[in-house]
């Protein structure tokens, strides 16, 4: 039987959301090759990322944050209200035309500032292409969102809990409950906790690039998309590399051009250092590195965990605490180490690298098998009885 799955992420900053959705798409298609996947994203750079078969993109007009923390249209000269209405209309049209059996929404139950409201209304009356039954909806959450106080405030302001009750069939947390439990921490009501599943980290089975890593031994620096990783990058390019090792820094596609040029100019002065810009799939570099220094983004951490290589997390601590909380949790439960940003220096990085480059691969004692579990969860959800109209009315009431 052919199924159709839609994956949505608003993607106002970085590539983390869409990269996570691409890995989920790959897992679904690998388990059931007749599955068609449509990824809806606000990141134009998604077009350059490797995708699995039977997977296509709808790229929404991008939105970004200005220096005051306010959302604005990135390209079009339109108001925020206009761009959100346009994006929301495009998502709703995609739901109506594609007729997905399952929609997985990343992080924001109502999308960016409610842009999904129209699509949620359409989905409530959409019959899936493959199942012939009402489209099912899942909210997919990272292992860590932010501090509990911040998440509770944001979910209240965004009416997340009422939206989950009315529109969503399940909540999937892409993590290990024994490492961090964001749902109990924020006090999610019992009826919604009953719909929640912890999938395990989306780590084992991630796509492995066919690109050959460098032949010589090397250590790797990752700064996510690069938009807020300049301080780590500047320290990495000044770090003394371990004996017999090259250093490779991936600056990321969003690092300002002037900053990246400064880093590359420094690399030209060091024969043991290379600075790369946009790398569509860093998995081969992560797997081939003797050690990895990285920020604390979800995907980067999952890739280092999958590789088994020594990793040092230098988290972002503002404006969100997500990466700092993840770094602390990983340092407590896995072989990964944490370096607080206040302690960051070339000497600190060099000392850590020298101490770990000869370490063997390590598999931590946490659940890394989310990519194997999600296809089963999807199949179970699509096979489960669909609430009838009276049950839905009782929930709404």
UniProtKB/TrEMBL annotation:
SUPFAM superfamilies (UniProt xref): UDP-Glycosyltransferase/glycogen phosphorylase (SSF53756)
Domain of life: Bacteria
Name of the protein in question: Glycosyltransferase
A GO molecular-function descriptor: glycosyltransferase activity
């Amino acid at each position: 039987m052919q199924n159709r799955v839609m994956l949505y992420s608003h993607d106002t900053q970085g590539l983390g959301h869409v990269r996570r959705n691409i890995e989920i798409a790959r897992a679904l298609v690998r388990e059931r090759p007749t599955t068609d996947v449509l990824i809806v994203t606000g990141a134009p750079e998604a077009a350059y990322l490797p995708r699995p078969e039977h997977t296509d993109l709808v790229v929404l007009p991008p939105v970004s944050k200005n220096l005051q923390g306010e959302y604005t249209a990135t390209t079009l000269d339109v108001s925020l209200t206009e761009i959100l209405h346009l994006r929301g209309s495009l998502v709703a049209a995609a739901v109506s035309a594609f007729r997905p059996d399952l929609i997985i929404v990343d992080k924001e139950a109502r999308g960016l500032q409610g842009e999904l409201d129209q699509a949620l209304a359409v989905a409530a009356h959409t019959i899936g292409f493959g199942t012939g039954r009402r489209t099912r909806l899942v909210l997919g959450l990272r292992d860590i969102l932010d501090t509990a106080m911040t998440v509770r405030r944001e979910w209240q302001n965004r009416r997340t809990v009422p939206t989950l009750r009315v529109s969503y069939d399940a909540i999937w947390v892409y993590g290990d409950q024994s490492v961090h439990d964001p749902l109990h921490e924020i006090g999610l009501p019992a009826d919604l906790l009953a719909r929640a599943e912890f999938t395990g980290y989306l780590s084992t089975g991630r796509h492995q690039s066919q690109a050959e890593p460098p032949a010589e031994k090397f250590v790797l620096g990752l700064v996510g998309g690069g938009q807020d990783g300049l301080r780590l990058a500047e320290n990495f390019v000044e770090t003394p590399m371990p004996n017999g090792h090259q250093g490779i820094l991936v600056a990321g596609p969003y690092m300002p051009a002037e900053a990246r040029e400064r880093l590359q100019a420094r690399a030209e002065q060091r024969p043991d250092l290379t600075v790369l810009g946009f790398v569509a799939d860093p998995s081969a570099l992560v797997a081939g590195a003797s050690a990895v220094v990285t920020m604390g983004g979800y995907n980067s951490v999952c890739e280092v965990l999958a590789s088994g290589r020594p990793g040092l997390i230098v988290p972002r601590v503002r404006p969100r605490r997500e990466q700092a909380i993840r770094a602390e949790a990983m340092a407590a439960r896995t072989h990964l180490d944490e370096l607080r940003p206040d302690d960051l220096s070339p000497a600190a990085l060099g000392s850590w690298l020298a101490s770990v480059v000869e370490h063997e691969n390590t598999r931590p004692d946490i659940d890394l098998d989310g990519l194997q579990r999600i296809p089963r969860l999807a199949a179970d959800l699509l096979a489960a009885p669909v609430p009838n109209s009276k049950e839905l009315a009782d929930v709404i009431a």
